[in-house]
Specification:
Length: about 80
């Protein structure tokens, strides 16, 4: 397992956040909050991004739900 310095870990987390935000913005539609199928697709998108960056697997479910909750708050701005 890799070990990172605090600064390096912060940089990696920032890159993950930027990548996920860009992907969510591109994938968000007006009714994504209602349709479970669209939300499932977004979960997969987030999970794959976390895996790409080797985010700890045991922490991924919590991270995915947190990202989707945050995305719901910003969805109306992204759609406009």
């Amino acid at each position: 397992m890799r070990t990172y310095t605090v600064g390096a870990l912060d940089d990696i987390l920032k890159k993950i956040a930027v990548e996920i935000t860009e992907k969510l913005r591109a994938s968000t539609t007006g009714d994504w909050q209602v349709w479970e199928g669209v939300r499932a697709r977004l979960r997969i998108l987030v999970r794959r991004t976390l895996q790409k960056w080797k985010y700890p697997p045991d922490q991924q479910p919590v991270a995915v739900e947190l990202v989707l909750q945050q995305a719901e708050k910003f969805a109306s701005d992204w759609i406009a």
